[in-house]
Structure formats: structure tokens, C-alpha cells
Design a protein that fits this description.
The protein is an alpha/beta fold. The protein has helices at 45-59, 89-102, 117-126, 143-154, 170-176, 201-215, 235-250, 273-276, 300-307, 309-315, 321-327, 335-356, 388-393, 397-402, 430-436, 441-452; strands at 2-10, 14-21, 29-37, 66-74, 81-86, 106-112, 130-133, 161-163, 185-187, 232-234, 253-258, 263-268, 286-291, 359-365, 368-374, 383-387, 421-424.
Length: 457
């Protein structure tokens, strides 16, 4: 059999392939999923890809299985490692960081102001895949971005550079990163063109394009184009693409992905009129946060410490916590392990949403108390969507997400309310549909409807 499209999710440890057929019809079909260990460390990503396709063929009970197109998302080869450098941390540096996170990058270092020798040493140590330079509103401060560009040129890293700062610097930046520098330069619109104005989408698009150019040269990924003949984007960026597509269909939403190592939260929502009037700094409409300390396997100790060992044992009455910690291996198998992982997932969800959401602040001055808001306003969210292993497979996943509204104990966090509807990515294909939507938008929407079991349009 020849399927229309396969989408490969090339992770750091596991490669998953999802097969889609009848992609150009009114009723596209998700055929199934195969997986295998990722083989980047073996020096050739194709080994894992072929094994995942063979696993899918076996699950579908087919003698042969081929595809017309293969698209891909990837977090292998270290994912998309970036450093971000701006002028003022709460302004251009933060705007550049939002652009990079929304594109699916892993931010390893953020600086504000002129780079110091210690900063340059840190960048060399990180060996980023991309460097994002910003700084200055349009027609504002120029010197910092130019100085930073010259310092990075002097490091002789050959790392691609994206410039997203003051437009008056663009010609100067081109002269700094000329052909002799050996640096691939991307020029995009300013991420912070004027005070209180974020413009992150142009930079996000270029970051994803730059990632695709980079990833095919990463160790172990050099032959990926022998099998993947469509777009390749970072896996978290693919989930953001799917989130933005969902927003176009149903409106304000958040998407939660609780994994073994991290918890990602994507939101696409507008501020309420009430909050926008008192917000002290702008937030992007589409925002991603990644909590690197909140994972239900690799980082489960962090969550246990956050809950408190004694409290956790008191809540999980009748369970031998020590025994579970010794035997639990990533995917729960026993009823006791399911109870344990659900409690960790609940904590990860609450903490990730709390960190992502903004808060109300009271400031006292000569004229009395003033109410301010900072951070992302989630009060307008109509839908909470669960994806990833935990929130698509645990028995009480819906109840965990429903409890988000009740976690706002002091009433000061800008969290979704009780009205938010819970949806689950039952087929666990949001990342695949994110990259699929770049070429087959209508099919991605129809497949999303089936996975969520909810009418979108």
C-alpha cells in the first residue's frame, strides 16, 4: 500500500510515524502510528525512520507500506538550541525570547545590553544552532545591537544569525556579517518596533525556516532528506502551529503537553478589555512556555519535592511509594502507577498554568491602591486541550484539566474559568497535524476534529 502522507516525529529517544490517507478528499483518514528508537546517535536517522515505518506496517498488518510524501518534526540532535540577545530585558530581549520559544526553540541563554566576555564564553560553551539578535525600537537606540553583532562576528562560530532589531541597523548588520564572515544572516522585521508593540510572528517563521536548513546538517541527520521530502520543523513549533490553527476554528484556547521531562503550555488568546487597560507590558497573542523541571518521569523527583514526600504519601493512601519509585519505567502499567502518575500530572499541570498565566498586583502609593496586571491573561480561554502522553492516555485526564479553574485559590491569577471546555487529542497527533497544516490545512482541520471528537467548523 502507498499512503498519501507520513509525518515523522523524530524525538531525542523515540521516532514516531503517523500515516494519513485520502488527504485531498473531504474525509482524510488517520491510519495508524508506528514507533522505534531514534537512531541519530547511531549516525543515521534513517535507521530509526525505517524501523518506525516497519512497525507501522506490522500494526496495520500489511505486506508492504510506502508513502507519497513524508513531513517531519524534530527535537533530536539537541533540538533547536538558541541564544537570544537584546537591549532591555523586559522589552526587546523578552520579545526576541517569545519569538524563539513560539517557534519551538530551546532557549539556552538570554542577555540584555552589551555582551561581556563572560557572555561570549557562555555562547561558545552552548554552541547554539541559531543566534537571535535584537535591540532598539525602530529609529531608536542603535549602538548595542551593532556592538553585539561585531562581538559575535569576532567569535568565528559560523552559527547562523537572525537580526530582528531596529530597522536602521539592517544595512550595518549586513556589512558585519558579510560573505567573508561565513555566517548565514537572516534579516526580519523588528520584534519590538515601538514601545508596547510586540511583532514576533515574522521572526518565528524565519526561525523555523532556519531550523530546517540547519537540521539536515546535524550529526546523524545528514541523510534525512533521503526519506523526508516535505517541511521539517521543531516539534514544539509544530504544536504551536496546530494551536494557532485551532484558534482560527474555535477561538481562545490553551494546549497542555505534559511529558516525561518537561511540560509545555501553548496559548493563543486575546487579553480581556478589563485586563488590557491595566496590563503593565504587552504579551504575545500566541505564547509558549516550557517548564524544564516539570516532567512525570525524568523530572518526577522535582514534582515530588514540590508536593512534599509526606503529603504525597498521605494522599496516595494504600500505595507503597518507595516500591513505585523503584519499578516505574516511563509508562504506567499498574493501577498504583496510574494513581501515582496522575497525581504528578495534576501538579505539573497546575504549576505550568500558574507560571504561564499573569497575575493581578496591587501597588500602594500616595493616592492609595492601584491595581495592575502583568503576564498572560488566560481569563478569555474557551477551550483547554490536552496532548502528549499523560493527557491523552491517563484515565482521569479530563478531571485533571477541569480542576485548573479551581486552582486559583487567591483569585489573583489570570487563569481560565469554569466555563472552559475540555478537549483531548485522543490520537496524539497534534504535532503531526501542525506540520501537516503547512501544506494541507483543510485536511489538518478535519483530522483534528476526529482526534478531538469535536466539531471545529
Amino acid at each position: 500500500m502507498i499512503v498519501d502522507v507520513m509525518v515523522a516525529e523524530i524525538g531525542s529517544t523515540t521516532t514516531v510515524v503517523n500515516a494519513f490517507h485520502q488527504i485531498n478528499t473531504k474525509d482524510p483518514v488517520f491510519l495508524g502510528q508506528g514507533q522505534a528508537p531514534t537512531s541519530v546517535l547511531d549516525g543515521d536517522v534513517r535507521i530509526g525512520l525505517r524501523s518506525a515505518v516497519d512497525d507501522l506496517r506490522s500494526r496495520l498488518e500489511m505486506n508492504t507500506l510506502d508513502y507519497g510524501e513524508m513531513l517531519a518534526t524534530s527535537s533530536a540532535a539537541g533540538g533547536l538550541k538558541m541564544t537570544v540577545h537584546g537591549l532591555v530585558y523586559d522589552m526587546t530581549a523578552r520579545a526576541a525570547k517569545e519569538a524563539a520559544l513560539g517557534a519551538g526553540a530551546i532557549i539556552h541563554y538570554v542577555t540584555a545590553g552589551k555582551l561581556r566576555r563572560t557572555d561570549l564564553a557562555k555562547i561558545k560553551e552552548i554552541k547554539p544552532n541559531l543566534i537571535l539578535l535584537a535591540g532598539g525600537v525602530d529609529f531608536g537606540e542603535r549602538d548595542t545591537a551593532i556592538y553585539n553583532a561585531e562581538m559575535i562576528r569576532g567569535m568565528d562560530l559560523k552559527t547562523p544569525v537572525i537580526y530582528a532589531g531596529n530597522i536602521e541597523n539592517q544595512e550595518e548588520i549586513k556589512l558585519i556579517f558579510d560573505e567573508e564572515s561565513g555566517v548565514k544572516l537572516y534579516i526580519v522585521d523588528n520584534v519590538y518596533p515601538k514601545i508596547d508593540d510586540l511583532n514576533v510572528e515574522p521572526a518565528r517563521r524565519v526561525i523555523q525556516n532556519a531550523f530546517e536548513e540547519h537540521i539536515i546538517h546535524a550529526p546523524g541527520m545528514e541523510h534525512v532528506r533521503d526519506m523526508v521530502n516535505g517541511p521539517i520543523i521543531p516539534t514544539p513549533g509544530a504544536v504551536m502551529e496546530a494551536t494557532k490553527l485551532l484558534y482560527e476554528c474555535i477561538g481562545d484556547l490553551i494546549v497542555l503537553d505534559v511529558g516525561g521531562a518537561t511540560t509545555d503550555l501553548h496559548s493563543v488568546t486575546e487579553d480581556s478589555d478589563e485586563i488590557s487597560r491595566i496590563l503593565i507590558s504587552p504579551e504575545p497573542k500566541a505564547k509558549r512556555t516550557v517548564e524544564g523541571d516539570l516532567g512525570v518521569y525524568v523530572n518526577m523527583k522535582n514534582i515530588i519535592d514540590a508536593i512534599g514526600r509526606e503529603k504525597l504519601e498521605a494522599e496516595l493512601t494504600g500505595l507503597d511509594l518507595e516500591q513505585i519509585l523503584q519499578t516505574y519505567q516511563a509508562i504506567p502499567k499498574t493501577a498504583a502507577e496510574f494513581r501515582f502518575v496522575e497525581r504528578l500530572t495534576r501538579e505539573a499541570v497546575f504549576r505550568a498554568v500558574e507560571r504561564h498565566a499573569g497575575k493581578i498586583r496591587y501597588v500602594y502609593g500616595p493616592s492609595g491602591r492601584t491595581t495592575l496586571a502583568e503576564g498572560k491573561d488566560l481569563t478569555q480561554v474557551k477551550y483547554i486541550v490536552g496532548t502528549g502522553g499523560a493527557l491523552t492516555r491517563l484515565p482521569h485526564r479530563v478531571e485533571i484539566m477541569k480542576a485548573i479553574a479551581g486552582s486559583n485559590t487567591n483569585g489573583l491569577s489570570l487563569l481560565p474559568g469554569q466555563h472552559a471546555k475540555i478537549l483531548v487529542d485522543n490520537d496524539y497527533i497534534m504535532a503531526s497535524l501542525g506540520v501537516l497544516s503547512k501544506k494541507y490545512r483543510d485536511a489538518a482541520i478535519q483530522l483534528m476534529e476526529k482526534s478531538l471528537d469535536y466539531r471545529l467548523v
